[in-house]
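C-alpha cells as discussed.
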C-alpha cells in the first residue's frame, strides 16, 4: 500500500490561521545536531531564500 503524494497547495488541504502562545521562559532548549546552526536573514541571502520559498510553492517567480 502506498501513500498518496499530496502537493502542499492541494485544494483539498484547507489553510487555517492559528496562533499559539507560550511563555518563552518555559520553552526547553534543544541543541542542534553537529553541522547545523540558526541564522537570521542577512543581506546576500535573497537568492537562497527565494529558492526555499519557491520549493515550498510560496512564490511563483523571483519578483
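Sequence:
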Amino acid at each position: 500500500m502506498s501513500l498518496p503524494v499530496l502537493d502542499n497547495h492541494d485544494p483539498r488541504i484547507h489553510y487555517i490561521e492559528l496562533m499559539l502562545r507560550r511563555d518563552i521562559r518555559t520553552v526547553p532548549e534543544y541543541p542542534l545536531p553537529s553541522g547545523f546552526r540558526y541564522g537570521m536573514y542577512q543581506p546576500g541571502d535573497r537568492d537562497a531564500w527565494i529558492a526555499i520559498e519557491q520549493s515550498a510553492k510560496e512564490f511563483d517567480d523571483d519578483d
